[in-house]
Amino acid sequence: MINSYGCQNMVDPIRRVLVKHPKDAYQDQIKLNKQSSQLNYLGVPNFDKALADYETLVGFIIYPGMILLHWILFIHMIPVLFLTAG
Question: What is the pTM of this model?
Fold first, then answer.
């Protein structure tokens, strides 16, 4: 059985991406400050920078010119779940 997740190949085009918005993952800087050590982070991430970085990353992922590269990309947005950090 072939997995449809994980890294199956390091050279083929990316076909599917899982992303979770920082607002759903971290919720806010206060919660992030409290949870960063439990999440084994080396430092406390900057929530505002995470928001900006997320928007930049998603902008690259859904860049309209990607169709010219013949990529078929599925973006799966991960919702807020009780059992995860957010």
Answer: 0.66
